[in-house]
Write a structure and sequence with these properties.
73% of the residues lie in helices and 6% in strands. By secondary structure, the protein is mostly helical.
Length: 313
Amino acid sequence: MGADRSYAYGAAAGLLGDLLLGDPQRMHPVAAFGRAAGRVERALWHDHRGWGTLHTLVCAGGVTALGVVAARAVRPSFTGSAALTAAATWAVVGGTSLAREASAVGDALERGDLTAARARLPHLCGRDPQALDADAIARAVVESVAENTSDAVVGALVWGAVAGVPGLLGFRAVNTLDAMVGHKSPRLRRFGWASARLDDVAGWPGARLTAVLAVLAGDDPRGAVRAWRADAHRHPSPNAGPVEASFAGALGVRLGGTLSYGGRVEHRPVLNGTGRPVQVSDIGRAVRLSRRVGMLALGVTVAARLIGKGRGR
């Protein structure tokens, strides 16, 4: 039980550190991992799924193994285990940075500074901003807040509860690899296949928990459930679908539709079609919902770990 309590204290401290401090401004571990993964990609790249699978195993497997070694090294010390968990949680959770970037775009839109909003949007998501008007940018921000609440907060906490520090680090590594090579460009369609599929699997439980918590924490629980049940399966992503649909219903807005990534236009299904169009003011509402979901996720995952491990003894 001592190990479980040290995880609980560490995870809470790490999430509090993210809330108060945001991401590390220098020498960010995730950025360092991204640079290392990029070097491995350049060394291994072939237009072949097998080589992409090797890239995924080397990068994600290496980080997870490092987490195992570090966790074992501090296991005899309650304080050391809690401190390591806190540092890992702070490093991999990005809720505050997500809120800051979304709010920065929202502030620019509130001022009527569309140029500044377009310049800031790529910090948050991969949409092509130049063709977007204010309402389309606001919709992109709300969708990104919803999806990244799962990817940058809840998913990591879920895997931390399951596997401790290795789970925290491994999930973040998989999610980062998907962002780097998991998109369907001609160069990465085969090479990034393994990273994309592994991210789908790793993100599955966190996405469903995020959707459930959005129902509980949102302004319209019935609307969130209705949108989730009716529209989540229509989204091309098995994990973004439940999250975005649940957020859309909880906020009473309509998400989805036409968007552009890297010059590629996609026509996605509308989520919560009975909702109203997204307005600039909905960015702040989405950020507040995201924060509530993150705090609830901490409580749920820590409680699940304590109860589960206790029953296992």
